[in-house]
Amino acid sequence: MPSLTTARFFKGLLRKEIEGPHSTIPEDEFFDAVETGLDKIEEDRQLRVRLKYQSQLSQISNAGSVHSPNPEAEDEIPQLAEDFGTGAQAKSHKLWPEIDRICTEQLTQARQGVGEDGNGWQLFADEGEMKMYRREEEVDGMVIDPLKSCHVVKGVTAREMCHYFFDPAYRNDWETTLEDVQIVDNVAPDTLVFLQTYKRIWPASQRDALFWSHMRRITDNVDTGANDVWVVCNHSNQNEEYPPANQGKCVRIYLTVILVCQTYLTPGKDSKTATRDDLTCKITYCSTVNPGGWAPATVLRAIYKKEYPKFLKRFTGYVVDQCKAKPIMY
Hints:
Blueprint: H1 4-15, H2 27-63, H3 71-74, H4 96-111, E1 122-127, E2 130-134, E3 138-139, E4 142-143, E5 147-154, H5 158-166, H6 171-174, E6 178-188, E7 191-198, E8 207-218, E9 228-236, E10 251-265, E11 279-290, H7 297-323
Helix pairs in contact: 2-7, 5-7
C-alpha cells in the first residue's frame, strides 16, 4: 500500500497541486505534506546516527587494546593559525567590506534585548534554558519573520560551537534537510562562500542558498565576564561569477544569520585549569530568512514554530556529543 506522502504526491500531480501562485492545494494539506516529509527526513537522520554509533562501537571493540589512529580526531582542532578568526586573510577580497559591515551590524542586533521596549518580539518557544522569539514581518506577501533564540549549553566552548556551525565537514550531521554543499569561493580559512542545495519536500519547490560565511573572534570586551566570544555570520550574496538564482529547478533562499557564542568558566578556573565540567556556553542565534517561492504564510509560520526549536536542540546536542571526549578548544 502506498504511503500517505506517496498518495498525496500522485494526487497532487493529477490536480497540479504544487507550490506556485496558482496552487489550489488547501493550506492544511500543504502543511501536513511538508510536516510528513520533514518527519521522514528526521527519521532517516536518526537511523544514520544510530548506524554510525554502532559502527564506532564495533571499531573500538575490534581494536581491543591496540591504539589505532582516528583521522577524524586528528582533524578536530584545525584552524590553528594565529590570525584565524581575525579576517586578516580575507581583507583583500572584494567581499570583505560587506562581510565586515554585516557582521558588525548583526552582532550589535544580537546583543540587544527582547521584549523590554515593545519592539515586537514574541516568545513562541520556552523549553528550559532555550527561549525563542520572533517578529512577524512580510515582504511582498512572503513571510520573513526575524527569529532570535537564547540558549545555554554546558560542557563546550564558544569556539567549539562556532567551529561545528561553520565547518562544512560536519554540516550533514546536523542540518537534516541538506542535500549538497559546495564551496564556490574559498576566501580564507575563516571565510567561505557556499552554495547549499536542500532536499525537496513535496509540495514545496526545491530550494538552494548562496551565501558567504565568516567565523570571527570578538575582542571588543563588551561581554564582561566571558572568557571568550566567537561568532559565525552568514549572509546571502550574488556576484556575477557565482551560480545565478532561480535558473534551474531550485528557488533561491535569501538569508542573514548570526550565531553568537560566549564561554563562561567556573569562578576560580581559567582556560588552563578548566575541565569540561567548568564550561558554560551562552548562545544567541538570530536569523532572517526569505524562503522565496509561494508557500502560504500560515504554513511557513507553523513549520517554523515546530522546526526551529528542534533544529537548535539537535545542533547543540550534536556539538556536546562531538566534544565530550576531546581536548577543549578555545
